[in-house]
């Protein structure tokens, strides 16, 4: 077993910060040595196999990205990151666990969908991974199969009020699935957009010749997100299901979540970096020699980018401060422009939906610390501790304490990261949605279950090091 001492750094948790050394034995943290500790300054440093010097740096629990889509078949193509490339990119960015979405497609047995995801991910991940289950075909058999998911370590499932004909469930199906959620304690995750109405609006725009990517965001109006969020909340209230709304982007949707939470309902929500930093106006203004206005396809995602003039981005930051939104995931769903996004040339509806950000989430959220949007502690909470608690991993993940997995990031606040510049990212994409973003901080060293997997900007881990995470029920629920 290798012993490692991370010495001289500031250990940051969701609740505070302390100067401390962290001792790792094998895959676990065995001690956090604070000033005054008997072991501190003794021979620990000379007796360990390896010392990581964290002087002047932050030592934080590894990031947990609870919303990723590796190899997702979608929009007539497949998300371009494999479990291998996507998790290596994640490691570079200080993320040491992902929770990806296993897919049950229409007509498929739920169990087969989950098995297919184990097949894709098993032996290929560089960091630890778990699964949520997408329920794409609610019927008696799948409702029965859902009840067995917690035994498999899958304690949350996603439903779609959007994408008719693909993943869409109607209200009756959602109600039945939520009854399973109530009975089992599994978290219902909701893509809350009124898909049937959006599809009508999108078709009308295309008929008027409005085919550029920008119109994707016009069709997916915030009213469609607010309405669906409210409907999901009411169905959850009626059934007693705990609800987690994914990729929230509209300030009116946040207002719905806050309203339900103030009434004591078990309702939670995440947003994503794209809804904090990017806007519909950016998408409208995006033009390039190569793609013209189709450049905007780089940012076609659902929910869509929202208007800055309407204040959605400010509202997301505020909700992260006030805990009306509890965490930040990426919704990492990358596609290349060539052969993938370009399917939408001439008709925005055919553009595969998704943005790749898994490598940049920790940096982008740290920039929120630099600009004063969130505190250092809230950064850790939003990106690691709450995802662990929300999805039944806390204690093992999301915290630096004896007994926890040694998933640790040494982060340098004096470093600098130029995101997307010179295509230096490790995601399998031929562009960056974050080209030109400058971060006043830098991932220094990344440790996954005791193994240094990134140092000096180089990946030193291995595909296959990552293990499947059997998750417990959400630790937010009584
Ligand atoms: O645009 C997105 N979000 N693509 C991934 C699928 C989803 O809805 O999460
Ligand atoms: Zn979604
Ligand atoms: Zn998603």
Automatic annotation (TrEMBL):
Signal peptide extent? none
On modification after translation, the UniProt record reads: Carbamylation allows a single lysine to coordinate two divalent metal cations.
Identify which top EC class this enzyme belongs to: hydrolase
Its required cofactor(s), as named, are: Zn(2+)
Q: Which InterPro entries match?
A: Amidohydro-rel (IPR006680), Hydantoinase/dihydroPyrase (IPR011778), Metal-dep_hydrolase_composite (IPR011059), Metal_Hydrolase (IPR032466), Metallo-dep_Hydrolases_sf (IPR050378)
The record places domain Amidohydrolase-related at 58-453
Report the EC number(s), separated by commas if there are several: 3.5.2.2
Origin: domain of life:
Bacteria
Gene Ontology molecular function: dihydropyrimidinase activity; metal ion binding
Q: Which keywords annotate this record?
A: Hydrolase, Metal-binding
Q: Which residues carry this modification: N6-carboxylysine?
A: 158
Pfam families the record matches: Amidohydro_1
Q: Does the keyword Hydrolase apply?
A: yes
Q: Which family does it belong to?
A: Belongs to the metallo-dependent hydrolases superfamily. Hydantoinase/dihydropyrimidinase family.
Family matches, as PANTHER family: COLLAPSIN RESPONSE MEDIATOR PROTEIN (PTHR11647:SF1), HYDRANTOINASE/DIHYDROPYRIMIDINASE FAMILY MEMBER (PTHR11647)
Q: What is this protein called?
A: Dihydropyrimidinase
Q: Which organism does this record belong to?
A: Agromyces flavus
What taxonomic classification does the UniProt entry list for its organism? Bacteria, Bacillati, Actinomycetota, Actinomycetes, Micrococcales
